[in-house]
Amino acid sequence: MLTASGLHHSYGARKVLRDVSLTVRVGERIAIVGENGAGKTTLMRICARLLAPDAGTLEIDGRVGYCPQIPGLHDLLTPDEHLALFSPALGLTREQGIARGRELLAEFGFPGGDHGAQIRHLSGGCQQKLNLTLALLGGARLLLLDEPYQGFDHGSYMNFWDHVARWSRQGIAVIVVTHMLADLDLVDRVVSLTPVHEEVGG
Amino acid sequence: MSDVSAATTHATRARALVRRHWAEHVLLPAEMAGRELARRRGALGLLTLLPLAFYAASRADSDYAPVLGGIAMAFSISGAAIFCVMSSRRLDSRLVLSGYRPRELMIGRLLLLESLGTLVALVFAGVIVLGSNPADPGELFSGVFLVTLCAVPFGLAVGALVPSELESVLILIGVVGVQLTLSPSNPVAKFLPFWGAQRLLDQAGGGAGPTTWPIVVAFLYAAGLFVIACWAVNRRYANVR
Asked: Can you list the alpha helix ranges (DSSP code H) found in chain B?
């Protein structure tokens, strides 16, 4: 599903990833843990192909769904408008995208009356549910979820892990960045990143 | 005959597919950007008022007021374009990851902002014609439209190339500000993006000079800036595609 080997990445003089390798199989659930600055988000962005590594190779088989830590949604658009915007790129009509998105949002406990509300009027948890839904909308085979449940209430959080188990059974591989130790029992494998205390050329 | 008929059907289907792709991948992002912009009523008000304020402030004691007001339109229209690109960066990366081409997003914004800018230009040109009674209203309208033509790709290019909003706005103020302070005959002014528009606006007040060359320069500048904007976003997301 995903094979990354020998990944290196630096931001200026600050080295963030050094020789990181990762293999993800179909339906596998992986947690990525590590201190702040250990390169978790950088690794996710590289795996999503949003960031080119300085060195190393990456091979991915199938569509990737990426849920970033910061949603970056448009404050003045509604959830339905976001779903419509993503739909054609994912091979869906606007109507199909909105219908499918609403189903996913309902599964995460998104309030039914908020589909037409502007993002700025939604709670952080509801924004995060939309963020997660946009990652799932296209039927991805590999999900890259960077702390996807920020702002979720307890029920939604537990519900999220039920979904992860279901996706795994459907053959969808899931990588979750997490800081919560309780999550580690809910995955097949834990990948721990440690900060690189070395500057480039230092 | 049947071969001709099959070829015609094939061509019709191909055209329908291109139209559908265009509508979904270019016009839909433009529609959403338009919806967002339409909900920023304060910003839209300022977009229209800013060039009018420049014009009104200089009208009483300067024949150069139409030029000042016209070029000042670039502040608001380029500013809107910069904002449109920079506020969308986070979501754009996900849209490209989903399957949009970066240039499709840029073309959508270009169409939206050129349409909006043309509306502002129409209002603004009407006000100047009524307020200043220019010798050649045709050149005035052309000059104002050339400002819009160049201001949108200029804003898109700056927004795509520059990492943060502060630097982008400072570049905008710098370029437009320098263009405002220079006479169109100044050699430096000829290398700035709004020279063609400035030249026509200046001539509209009664000056004489060629009109074709400034128009050609403005079109070339606009095309060049848009190519740069597309190149910048393609480069940013080169790894995704």
From this structure: 2-22, 28-38, 41-59, 65-86, 89-98, 102-132, 137-161, 165-181, 195-204, 212-236
